[in-house]
From TrEMBL, chain A:
It is a multi-pass membrane protein. One of its GO terms (cellular component) is plasma membrane. The keyword Transmembrane helix applies. GO terms for molecular function: transmembrane transporter activity. PANTHER family: GUANOSINE ABC TRANSPORTER PERMEASE PROTEIN NUPQ, SUGAR ABC TRANSPORTER INTEGRAL MEMBRANE PROTEIN-RELATED. The chain crosses the membrane at residues 24-48, 68-86, 98-115, 121-149, 156-178, 190-209, 243-265, 277-300, 321-338. Keywords: Cell membrane, Membrane, Transmembrane, Transmembrane helix. This is ABC transporter permease.
From TrEMBL, chain B:
It is a peripheral membrane protein. Keywords: ATP-binding, Cell membrane, Membrane, Nucleotide-binding, Repeat, Translocase, Transport. It is found in: Cell membrane. One of its GO terms (cellular component) is plasma membrane. This is ABC transporter ATP-binding protein. It comes from Natronocalculus amylovorans. GO terms for molecular function: ATP binding; ATP hydrolysis activity. Its main location: membrane. Pfam families: ABC_tran (PF00005). Residues 5-242, 259-503 form the ABC transporter domain. InterPro entries: AAA+_ATPase, ABC_carbohydrate_import_ATPase, ABC_transporter-like_ATP-bd, ABC_transporter-like_CS, P-loop_NTPase.
Length: 354, 518
C-alpha cells in the first residue's frame, strides 16, 4: 500500500517535471535539455572515469574545447542571424552559403593586397580585409535582393544562384591572384575576435528584431506585408533592408571564418563546407530567434569540437558522420516538434496595389 | 450644415468599364451612412476613391467642405479618413497593441526603441474611451474575428480618423457580433465620428444607418433617410425590379435517406479536432441546411463527405454504401456533386478556359471522353450550355476562369455541379459573391433539385439563405451541432444564439432532434 503511494508520488513528480519542461518556451527547452545532457555526461564521467563517458566528460568540461566550440559556431551563428533578418522580412535567403564563401575569400584577398603586416590609417590590414569581406557579402546580397524583390525572381533559385556564383567566383579569383584555389597563409589571424563579434551580434540582432520599429516592420513584412503597406511603410524597402542585413551578418561570418585561420581554402566545397546551409538549419531550429539560432549553432559547433578532440585521443568517429547531425536534428525537429513557425508571407512576392 | 463628406459627381472609369457614373454622396457629420448595393454596383470603388486608393476620372471629393485630392491613402489618413477593409490587415503573431501602433509607434531613448508601455497604455485608453473592451497584450491569432475587427477600427482611430469607412463589416461576424458592432457605431457617432459602411444586406442598412445611399450599376439610385424606408423599396432600387424577398419552400414529403452521417469526428490540417461527434441524415427531396460562422467545422465536415479528407472516427453512409471506402472519383461518379467554398482553390483551375473547367470531375466519363481522349466538341457544347443557362458573363467558353468576376465564376461552378444530374448535392456557400438576380436563380435551381427528389446538403453563412431554403437546419458551433431546428419556427435571434454555442429552450426542437436520431 505504502509502496504504491510512493510510486504514485514518484510518477506524479516525474509527470509534473515533464509537464513543466513542456510548458517552457521553445528556446528554453533547448537550453534546459542541453544542460541536462551535459550534466548527465558529467555525472557518468565522474562515476566511471575510465569509460568512454569519462573521456567525453573530460573533453566537454575543458575550457579550450568550449572556446573552440564558440569559434566553430561563430560563422554559423552569424550567417544564421543574417538568414533570420531576410526570412523574417519575407525573403528566403538560401544563398547564405554563397555569401559566406564570397566574404571569406574577399577578406583574405584584400588583406593580402594591402599586405598582412601593413596598416591603413592605423587600422591593421586584417581588419580592412574583414570590412571588405562584409562589404562583399552586402553587395552580393544586394544583387540577390534586387533580383528577388524588384524582378520577382524565384527566391530559391536566385539563392542557389548566389551560392553557385560564389562557389565558382572565389576559387577562380583566387587562381588569378594567388595562383591556386587556396590562397596560402596570410601569416596573421584575428584570433578569438569572432567570438566577441558573434556574441555582440546576437544581442544586437535580438534588440533590433524585438524592440525597435524596424524590427517590427521586418516581422510584419514577412507575416502580412499588406498590413505594413497600409500602415504607410514600404514593404520592398523593408525587405531590401532585411536582405542587406543578411549579407552584412553573413559577411561577418565569412570574414571571421577565413581570417580566424588566416587563409582561404577554395578546393572542393571551399572552406565554408556547407556552413551556410547549417546556418539555415540553425535558425529554423532556433525558431527565428537570434538567441535560439546562437544556441543551435553552439550545439552544432560543440559537437564538431568534441568530434575533433575524440579523433585526437584515438576514437575513430568519422567526421562526416558528425557533420550529418545538424541535418538529422532539423528533420527530427521539423517532423516531431513542429514548433518552428515559418513567417506566413516568406517566399511570396508582394505587389502594392494602385 | 456642411457635410463631413461630399462626393460631387464622381465618375471612375477603368478600361472598358464605368465603375462609378456621376455619383453624388453626402454624409453628415456624426451620422452612420450605409452604402447599399449588389456586388459589382461600384460601392467599394467609390469608397476607394474617397480613401485615395483610386483617383476619380471626374468629380470632386469634398471633406468638411473643402475640395481634396488624394494621391494615396496616406493623404486621406492625414486628413482623418480611415478605412477598414473586408480582409483584415493584421499581423497574426503580433499583439493587439503592436498592430494598432504599427507604422506610428511611440518611441523612447531618442527614437531608438519602441515604447511598448506607452503603446499599451494609449491603446487601452482608446479602447476604453469607445468601450471596445480589448486586451492590448493578446495576440491577433488568439482573438475572435469580432475583436480583430475592433482592432482594425482602433488602428484607424489611433491614426486620428474622424471619418471611418467599413467595407462589408458584417460579412464575417455572428449575429451577436454584428449587434456589438452596431453598438460600437453608436458609441463612435456619439463622440462625433462619422461612419460610412458598405453592405448588400438590406436589414443591416435599415437597422444601423441614419441614411442610406443605394448604388446600382455604378449610379446613385437614391439617398434616403433610413427611417421609414421599406425593405421592398430598397430591394427594388438595388435590383431595379421587383424581387422575391424570401425563397419560398413548398412543403414536400422527403423520401429515403440518401446520406447518413453518424458520430463523425474529423481533424483539421493541424490535427485539431474540428468536427466532434456529429450525426445527421439527409433524405432525398430534402434540403438539410447547416448554418454557423465560418470556421466552426463546416469545411472539415464537407471535406469528409466529399472525400477530401478522412474522418478520424464515425460512419458516413451514402445510399447504403460506406462512403469511406470510396475514392473521390467514385463519389463523383455515384452522383455526389460538390460546390466548394473556395472557388479559386477547389472549384476551378484558374488559367484553364471554361470548356476545360466545365468537364472537371467528368473528364474521364464516356460522355466527354468516349475513347479515352477528350472530345472537345462535346465539352465545348457542355460549357456553352452552362454559360447560357446560368447567365455567365462574358458568354464565351474560351474565356479563362481567372478572367471572370467572382460572381460569374461561382455561377459557372454551380451550373457545372448541378448539371451532373446528382443524387446528393453538397453546396457550400452556393451564392457567395453573386448578385441578387443570380442568387434567386441559384435558389430556384436548388429547389428544383429538391422537387426532383435529390438530397441537398446546404452550408451557408447567410442566415436568410439557409433558413429560407432548408427543410431542417443544423447550427454548427466549434465542431458540434448546437441544435437541429425547424427553420420556419425559430427566429434569427435564436439561431444566432445557437451560432454562439448557446442552447435554446423549446420542446419542439428537442423533438426534432429525436426524430433525426430515429
Amino acid at each position: 500500500m505504502r509502496e504504491n503511494a510512493e510510486q504514485n508520488q514518484d510518477q506524479e513528480l516525474k509527470k509534473s517535471l515533464i509537464d513543466r519542461f513542456k510548458s517552457l518556451s521553445y528556446v528554453w527547452q533547448i537550453i534546459v535539455g542541453t544542460i541536462g545532457v551535459l550534466a548527465l555526461i558529467g555525472v557518468v564521467g565522474l562515476l566511471f572515469p575510465a569509460s568512454p563517458a569519462g573521456d567525453l566528460a573530460r573533453i566537454i568540461f575543458r575550457w579550450s574545447v568550449f572556446t573552440q566550440a564558440l569559434r566553430i559556431s561563430a560563422p554559423i551563428a552569424l550567417a544564421a542571424i543574417g538568414g533570420i533578418f531576410a526570412e523574417k522580412s519575407g525573403v528566403i535567403n538560401i544563398g547564405l552559403e554563397g555569401l559566406l564563401i564570397i566574404s571569406a575569400f574577399t577578406a583574405v584577398l584584400v588583406t593580402a593586397m594591402i599586405g598582412p603586416a601593413e596598416t591603413v590609417a592605423f587600422i591593421p590590414a586584417i581588419w580592412i580585409g574583414f570590412l571588405a569581406g562584409v562589404l562583399a557579402g552586402v553587395i552580393l546580397s544586394a544583387l540577390f535582393g534586387i533580383v528577388c524583390i524588384e524582378f520577382k525572381a524565384d527566391q530559391i533559385i536566385a539563392g542557389l544562384a548566389v551560392w553557385l556564383i560564389a562557389l565558382g567566383l572565389a576559387p577562380f579569383a583566387s587562381t588569378l591572384y594567388f595562383g591556386g584555389r587556396d590562397t596560402g597563409s596570410l601569416g596573421t589571424t584575428i584570433g578569438n575576435w569572432p567570438i566577441a563579434i558573434m556574441l555582440l551580434s546576437v544581442l544586437a540582432a535580438w534588440v533590433l528584431l524585438n524592440h525597435t520599429t524596424f524590427g517590427s516592420y521586418i516581422r510584419a513584412a514577412g507575416e502580412n506585408p499588406k498590413a505594413l503597406d497600409t500602415a504607410g511603410v514600404s514593404v520592398s524597402r523593408i525587405r531590401h533592408a532585411g536582405v542587406l542585413l543578411s549579407g552584412f551578418f553573413a559577411g561577418m561570418g565569412g570574414a571571421s571564418l577565413s581570417l580566424s585561420i588566416g587563409l582561404f581554402i577554395g578546393t572542393g566545397e571551399t572552406m565554408v563546407e556547407g556552413r551556410g546551409f547549417i546556418a539555415i538549419v540553425a535558425y529554423l531550429f532556433g525558431n527565428y530567434n537570434p538567441v535560439g539560432a546562437f544556441g543551435a549553432s553552439l550545439l552544432f559547433g560543440g559537437l564538431d569540437a568534441i568530434q575533433i578532440r575524440l579523433q585526437q585521443i584515438g576514437y575513430g568517429i568519422p567526421d562526416t558522420l558528425v557533420q550529418t547531425i545538424p541535418y538529422i536534428v532539423v528533420i527530427l525537429v521539423l517532423a516531431f516538434v513542429g514548433r518552428t513557425r515559418i513567417p506566413k508571407a516568406a517566399g511570396k512576392h508582394y505587389e502594392t496595389e494602385e | 450644415m456642411t457635410p463631413a463628406v461630399h462626393l460631387d459627381g464622381i465618375t471612375k472609369r477603368f478600361p472598358g468599364v464605368v465603375a462609378n457614373d456621376n455619383v453624388d454622396l453626402r454624409v453628415e457629420e456624426g451620422s452612420v451612412h450605409a452604402l447599399l448595393g449588389e456586388n459589382g454596383a461600384g460601392k467599394t470603388t467609390l469608397m476607394n476613391v474617397l480613401y485615395g486608393l483610386y483617383q476619380p476620372t471626374e468629380g470632386t471629393v469634398r471633406v468638411n467642405g473643402e475640395p481634396r485630392s488624394f494621391a494615396s491613402p496616406s493623404d486621406a489618413i492625414d486628413i482623418g479618413i480611415g478605412m477598414i477593409h473586408q480582409h483584415f490587415m493584421l499581423v497574426d503573431p503580433m499583439t493587439i497593441a503592436e498592430n494598432v501602433v504599427l507604422g506610428n509607434e511611440p518611441r523612447k531613448y531618442g527614437g531608438l526603441l519602441i515604447d511598448r508601455e506607452r503603446a499599451r497604455k494609449e491603446v487601452l485608453e482608446l479602447s476604453d474611451k469607445y468601450g471596445f473592451n480589448v486586451d492590448p497584450d493578446a495576440r491577433i491569432e488568439e482573438v475572435s474575428v469580432g475583436v480583430q475587427q475592433r482592432v482594425e477600427i482602433l488602428k484607424a482611430l489611433y491614426r486620428g480618423a474622424e471619418i471611418l469607412i467599413l467595407d462589408e463589416p458584417t460579412a464575417v461576424l455572428t449575429p451577436q457580433e454584428v449587434e456589438e458592432l452596431f453598438e460600437v457605431f453608436d458609441e463612435l457617432t456619439s463622440q462625433g465620428k462619422t461612419i460610412i459602411f458598405i453592405t448588400h444586406k438590406l436589414g443591416e442598412a435599415m437597422h444601423a444607418a441614419d441614411d442610406i445611399t443605394i448604388l446600382r450599376n455604378g449610379k446613385n439610385v437614391g439617398s434616403l433617410d433610413a427611417k421609414g424606408v421599406t425593405r421592398e423599396d430598397l430591394a427594388q432600387r438595388m435590383v431595379g425590379r421587383e424581387v422575391l424577398m424570401e425563397p419560398q419552400v413548398t412543403p414536400q414529403e422527403p423520401g429515403e435517406v440518401t446520406l447518413d452521417v453518424s458520430h463523425l469526428h474529423v481533424e483539421d490540417t493541424r490535427g485539431v479536432e474540428a468536427v466532434s461527434d456529429v450525426s445527421f441524415s439527409v433524405r432525398s427531396g430534402e434540403i438539410f441546411g447547416i448554418a454557423g460562422v465560418d470556421g466552426n467545422g463546416q469545411s472539415e465536415l464537407v471535406e469528409a463527405i466529399t472525400g477530401l479528407t478522412n474522418p478520424t472516427d464515425g460512419d458516413i453512409t451514402y445510399r447504403g454504401r460506406q462512403l469511406e471506402s470510396m475514392t473521390r472519383r467514385e463519389r463523383i461518379d455515384s452522383g455526389i456533386a460538390y460546390v466548394p467554398e473556395d472557388r479559386h482553390e477547389r472549384g476551378m483551375v484558374m488559367p484553364f478556359n471554361l470548356v476545360q473547367n466545365g468537364i472537371l470531375g467528368s473528364q474521364h466519363t464516356s460522355e466527354f471522353a468516349p475513347s479515352g481522349r477528350i472530345n472537345w466538341e462535346t465539352a465545348g457544347a457542355h460549357a456553352t450550355e452552362i454559360i447560357e443557362e446560368y447567365d455567365v458573363r462574358p458568354p464565351t467558353a474560351e474565356a479563362t476562369a481567372e478572367s471572370l468576376s467572382g460572381g460569374n465564376q461561382q455561377k459557372f461552378i454551380v451550373g457545372r455541379e448541378f448539371d451532373r444530374d446528382p443524387e446528393l448535392v453538397v453546396a457550400t456557400h452556393p451564392t457567395r459573391g453573386v448578385d441578387i438576380g443570380a442568387m434567386e436563380f441559384i435558389h430556384e435551381r436548388i429547389q428544383e433539385l429538391r422537387a426532383n427528389g435529390k438530397a441537398i446538403l446546404l452550408i451557408s453563412s447567410k442566415l436568410e439563405e439557409v433558413q429560407g431554403l432548408s427543410d431542417r437546419l443544423a447550427v454548427m458551433h466549434e465542431g458540434e451541432f448546437s441544435g437541429i431546428v425547424d427553420p420556419s419556427s425559430v427566429t434569427e435571434e435564436q439561431i444566432g444564439l445557437l451560432m454562439a454555442g448557446e442552447s435554446i429552450s423549446g420542446g419542439e426542437n428537442a423533438a426534432l432532434r429525436e426524430e433525426d436520431v430515429a
